[in-house]
Amino acid sequence: MLVHDTIGTGRSQTEIDQIQRSLQARYDELSAEYEQAVLQSHVLRLVEVGDTAGDDQADSGTKTAERDTAQSLLRTILDRRAQYEHALTRLEEGTYGFCEGCTSAIPVERLEIFPSATTCVQCKQNRERRAA
């Protein structure tokens, strides 16, 4: 993997510190969101365990759907948090802002919209085409 220093990125230390604070703040928000979702999931399970008497198929189906939705939310939050963790690691290594595919600089506009982006638009499109 190509490693870039702060001079190669064209970013000042102040800009790097600002990016780090922003990424860390979002990571912390996602961690708090995850903890809240875990608590809600536990409450849902406790209610479900204590409230199964007299359930028909519709009730069981609703509870299963709620449980699946809660688990999906947890996975989504963990995935997003992992993306920010990876971005923080890349920032420390000096590779943040450079495409993992072609090593070109990721446009600032893309990073402003999607701060945890690891690829340029072209490489992202190529990956999506291959996955389809």
Protein model, in words:
This protein has 132 residues and is an all-alpha fold. The protein has one domain: Up-down Bundle (Four Helix Bundle (Hemerythrin (Met), subunit A)). Helix content is 73%, strand content 0%. It contains five helices and no strands. The longest helix has 38 residues, at 13-50.
CATH architecture: Up-down Bundle
Low-confidence stretches: 1-8
Secondary-structure element order, N to C: HHHHH
Report the mean per-residue pLDDT as an integer.
Answer: 85
Structural class: mainly alpha
CATH class, anyone? Mainly Alpha
Strand segment tally = 0
Strand content: under 5%
Radius of gyration: 20 Å
- Indicate the overall shape: elongated
**Biggest sheet details:** none
For the record, the count of structural domains works out to 1
Count every helix, treating DSSP H or I runs of 4 or more residues as helices: 5
**What is the CATH H-level superfamily?**
DksA, coiled-coil domain
Distance from first to last alpha carbon: 26 Å
Indicate the percent of residues in helices. over 70%
CATH topology, what is it called? Four Helix Bundle (Hemerythrin (Met), subunit A)
